[in-house]
Amino acid sequence: MRLKPACFIIFLLSNFTQAFWLTQVKKRLINSTTPQLEWAPCGNLELMECEKTYLNISECGKLPVPLDYQDKCGEQIDLALITIKATIQPYKGSVLLNLGGPGLSGIQFVTTIGKTYQDESGTGRTIPFKCQKSESTKSRRGINYPLPHDILPQQDLWGEIKGGMWDDYGNFASDCETSMRKHGPHMGTVTAARDILSIVDDLQEGGQLKYWGISYGAILGQYFAAMFPDRFDRMLLDSIPRLDDYLSGT
């Protein structure tokens, strides 16, 4: 999955609009002045029955954006969006929500519990981020490597970590680098922030972001505010991780 989350979302909070996005690779030239996003019935999304609760009141659309924002004439991708329109007037604009992860599917989220959030006062279909496992990784337990149940919490775990787990994670990282060499460099928080700005610009609602970020989404909101300090109206950052811890691990 392209880590931009992913599943980033424009979401209805009371008298606002909500939408979720996903991506598919395409080549297309973007017109930055003419709105590209057109809403239409979502059609047959591949969802479980329990995920279709609010599909009938949703609309979908696609927004072309650069895969690499440093090469805007290069390959393009489609950010695929899903929206539930505001029902209360006056309409006050769109709210973009990232529910965390990164990598969670916004499509399933809105079609499953969208109505619940609509009544409050307020990735999986992106470019798949899949790492083809090597034979050595397939033959072991990979990243699903449970520690023995008889280890005490205060016990030194380095002996467990430096064994098979360390090798497996190394193999998994190598597989990811090989499998995602083309799209992987463009799957990150900085690119996600630029995608948000592309959506804000295309909506043509005054050019100011209204945003709700949860967990990783709160980190993304901080990135956006730092990169584009004059392009947001207000933000709600919920369940905020330590940004310094996040940055030190990337």
Automatic annotation (TrEMBL):
This is AB hydrolase-1 domain-containing protein. Gene3D superfamilies: alpha/beta hydrolase (3.40.50.1820). Keywords: Hydrolase, Signal. InterPro entries: AB_hydrolase_fold, Serine_prot/Carboxylest_S33. Belongs to the peptidase S33 family. GO terms for molecular function: hydrolase activity. Residues 1-19 form the signal peptide. It comes from Clonostachys byssicola.
